[in-house]
Amino acid sequence: MDCLFCNIATKKVSSEIVTEDEDFLAFRDIYPKARIHLLVIPKRHIESLKDIGGRDSDLIGRLMLKVAEIAREQGLEGYKVGINVGKKGGQEVDHLHIHLLGNA
Ligand code: AMP
Ligand code: ZN
Fold first, then answer.
1. Closest C-alpha to 85, from 73, 97, 76, 67
2. Quick one: pLDDT at residue 41?
3. Range of the domain at 71
């Protein structure tokens, strides 16, 4: 399986990484739609929000905590968090990712 965001997670494809730990990676969206536009991903390949189940509750919970922590570190007072789900939901890259967008 050739997945762009798996390749970003393993550094086969370069990206502008903002922060990283064992389970998650945050990097700058290549076409930013806000002053700060980051994508936060689990390193483990999950195709979409549609594919999560009870076994992922810990990972998804920690993913949301990570997003809030990154927003704080970026000095954002307010921001938007979004997930596109499935082709019909505007998802272009089939690896679960959270858009973090903020201007202030
Ligand atoms: P989505 O439409 O939710 O699947 O969002 C995919 C996002 O990935 C878009 O906002 C793209 O601009 C972004 N993107 C695509 N390729 C790259 C890349 N190589 N590095 C960083 N962001 C990318
Ligand atoms: Zn992947």
1. 97
2. 98
3. 4-102
